[in-house]
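Notes to self after the Tuesday call (sharing in case useful).
The group wants a holo model before anyone commits to mutagenesis around the pocket. I volunteered. Ligand is pantoate. Logging inputs and output together so the record is complete.
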Amino acid sequence: MQTITTIAALNAAIEEAKNANKTIGLVPTMGALHEGHLSLIHKAREQNDLVVVSVFVNPIQFNNKEDLAKYPRTVEADCEKLSSAGADIAFVPSVEEMYPEPVNTVYHFGPIEEVMEGPRRPGHFSGVAVVVRRLFDLTKPNRAYFGEKDYQQIAIIRNLLEQIKYPIEIVPCPIVRAEDGLALSSRNMRLSAEARAVAPHIYATLQQAVEMSEVEDVETVHDFVIDTLSSFHEVNGLDENLKFEPEYFEIVNDTTLQPISDWKDAKGIVGCIAVWLTGVRLIDMVRFR
Ligand code: PAF
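Result:
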């Protein structure tokens, strides 16, 4: 595996691959790699001649400075994992390399950014779009791989591609979970052992919600999730600091991402959640229909 830190070296490697008619798979990441990322790389490895993985903590997609400062950075361990997973190129640029000039571009995505993460993280999706477009421009991929844990992000990237009209196939990959059900996330590293032990109840509650959706209406299922998580510490006699604080739980059409009020409102329906636990923001999602 080649580790590349400059755009000039990346351009040369991509040109060489294009001249040899190789297909290119791009896996954009912010590092702190776990099995979830590795599943994207394995998929990319199956489907492309050249696999490029970017490792870049993109400052312009963080609306919260503390979150950016605390975001885990484990570049050496990441490169070892990438090499074992079969990546050909790890692209690890500095902030100055990616953004030599201040970024003024702002993307808009209409209704799909007005729900869930959108209003709570102002500027986040525009920042994601700027970096993803830049990575598309630099790596000229045939396919790009994204995890379904960030369900709304995939809709945003698809919308970006419609706006910029690049012929890139987006390959969504299912959430990878720990044995106890917790969705793998780089942020899990920041959980204490006690918080890590209660965190799987987010997914357990979502699974109960799916069962419940066979017999209960949308509002009841929604309220069940919020109430179960909010009262979890009390019901289980846990310390107040192990309280789940749900930021949102939205049951939405899986394509438009607009909230539904009846299970008959859409064919595909997913539930997306963001929950705070001991100062760590965890997200997860589940399919209802
Ligand atoms: O999902 C992520 O880790 C990031 O949002 C991405 C797509 C790598 C852009 O920085």
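Two things stood out.
The longest strand covers residues 244-253.
The radius of gyration is 20 Å.
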